[in-house]
Amino acid sequence: MRWLITGAGGMLAADVHDRTVLTGEPVLALGRGELDLRDRRAVREFVSAYRPRVVINCAAWTAVDEAETHEAEALAINGHAVRWLAEACDLAGARLLHVSTDYVFDGAARVPYREDSPTGPVSAYGRTKLAGERAALEHGHYVVRSAWMYGASGANFVRTMIRLAGERPAVDVVDDQRGQPTWTADLADYLVRLAQSDLPPGVYHGTSTGEATWCEFAKEIFTLLGADPGRVRPVPSTAYPRPARRPANSVLAHTRWEPIRHWKAALHAAWPVMRGPVMSGGRAGADPQCSVA
After folding, report:
1. Among 26, 33, 45, 40, which Cα is nearest to 6's?
2. Which active-site residues does the annotation give?
3. What does the alpha-carbon distance between residue 169 and residue 245 come to, in Å, rounded to a whole number?
4. pLDDT in tens, 176-215
């Protein structure tokens, strides 16, 4: 099996690359400098020449607020580029796994969203990611939704909380949005195993089990630091208005395949890595939900 990973400059792609290397099979990870996914012809020619068996698309426009005023640019990466990849994979006989997001939902549900729950994004970012999902599915490929990701490479909520715990006496964190903190190393393993499986194409949910608010997530991080979790103070989302609406409920159900482990177990396993220096070669569109006091 020959693997191709797109979005090589990102946090998730770094872990996907590390995980695919363990298969002992040929792996190529490309960033925008090597392949501009917005170029339909370039995508088709490259995939045709390399002939991967699996393409894992980690490339994305992740600047959620900026997408509100740059939706066309976000759509070029999150929507059109996925279609070009799907078309190229069809011609090459490759399997495409496209990574998507909880933002395709409106967040108003009181129960976890199933893989077949109706979508209804409330932000430009969510609309562009939904366009990418539709493109992948129309061509008979795989969509893996994830959320609240953190990892060893790049900026993310865990690293922000570690830094703030050492800088501020108190941290105010949003407590009315619920989701599933997900370690990118766990998601990378999920993606590789899905690619190697006989499961049919369609939508899958690649998030940790359990759920928490951003505030509860932050308190667990402070606890692992040996800091007083009482220094994390809950506030409503309205205290920090943002250009893009965030889903109040980002909890995803896992009805089509086995779930990833509980978010607390994952955070504890990731802790030695997260406490260390930022790994090179990764970046993330961090979506911090906090303010310091």
Report:
1. 33
2. 125
3. 29
4. 999 999 999 999 999 999 999 999 999 999 999 999 999 9
> pTM score, two decimals?
0.95
Q: Which residue has the tokens 């490259």?
A: 46
Q: Where are the beta strands (DSSP E) in 126-213?
A: 142-146, 149-150, 171-174, 178-179, 182-183, 202-205, 208-209, 212-213
Alpha-carbon span 98 to 90, nearest angstrom = 14
- Label residue 280 by pLDDT band (50, 70, 90): low
Sequence-ordered list of residues with C-beta below 8 angstroms from that of 238, at least 6 positions apart, any chain: none
Q: How many CB atoms lie within 10 A of CB 22?
A: 10
d(C-alpha 98, C-alpha 80), whole Å:
13
Q: Locate tokens 């899958």: which residue? A: 204
**Long-range contacts of the stretch 229-234 (C-beta < 8 A, 24+):** 231/165, 231/169, 231/170, 231/171, 232/170, 232/171, 232/173, 233/170, 233/171, 233/172, 233/173, 233/293, 234/172, 234/173, 234/174, 234/175
Return the C-alpha torsion angle 100, 106, 109, 110, nearest 10: 90
Alpha-helix runs per DSSP H in 58-151 = 71-75, 81-92, 124-138
Q: How far apart are CA 232 and CA 256, in angstroms?
A: 36
